[in-house]
Amino acid sequence: MVMNSRTPATADHPVLRVPPASPAAAAAYFGASLAFHADVSDVAAALAADGDPGFVVLDSRSTASWDRGHIPGAVHLPTALIPEQAAALLDPAVPVVTYCWGPGCNGSTRAALGLAQLGYQVKEMLGGFEYWAREGFAYETWEGGARRAADPLTAPVDAADCGC
Questions:
Q1: Pairing status of strand 75-76 against strand 56-59
Q2: Alpha-carbon Rg for the chain in angstroms
Q3: How far apart are CA 147 and CA 53, in angstroms?
Q4: Cα distances (Å, whole numbers) of residue 89 to 22, 71, 78, 85, 92
Q5: Residue 71 CB: number of other CB atoms within 10 A?
Q6: Can you tell me the distance from the alpha carbon of 4 to that of 74, in angstroms, rounded to the nearest whole number?
Q7: N or C: less crowded end of the chain, CB within 10 Å?
Q8: Cα–Cα distance between 140 and 114 in angstroms, integer?
Q9: pTM of the model
């Protein structure tokens, strides 16, 4: 059978073996996803803009990890300490954006869960500190400020934004 734009896709391959969700279900899912996640570039743009971004950034990693590099202005609160220290460090009226090392780590997910269970509005920053650094945004270490060149595989090198 020859496939064209008018021929229905078959389940002969893994992409469509499970059919796509209906447009309404997809809109609900992706809309919900945006309520739970923030993009590194969007967080950086909000922090760089004049005025209050309307949220606080929380680094949920260990002190050793924090010392190796963290987002300027972030609050350091390791996940294990959230139940006992969140109230002293965070305003419950201000949304929190959590991050950890990167996509291979679910520490920011655990931190977001812990904060949500305490009544905080929370989002998780996709990509974590790894993508913050890979996209060329400035960060702080125990030695001072640092910045890497943007990785062309993760960030637009010759454009103001990726067009997403």
A1: parallel
A2: 19
A3: 22
A4: 43, 17, 12, 6, 10
A5: 24
A6: 51
A7: N
A8: 26
A9: 0.86
Reading the chain (164 residues) residue by residue, the pLDDT tens digits are: 455 555 555 667 888 888 999 999 999 999 999 999 999 999 999 999 988 999 999 999 999 999 999 999 999 999 999 999 999 999 999 999 999 999 889 999 999 999 999 999 999 999 999 999 999 999 999 999 988 888 888 877 776 666 67
E strand map for 25-128 = 37-39, 56-59, 75-76, 96-99, 122-126
List the structure tokens of 17: 């073996």
96, 120 Cβ separation under 8 angstroms:
yes
Residue recorded with tokens 């959590």 = 98
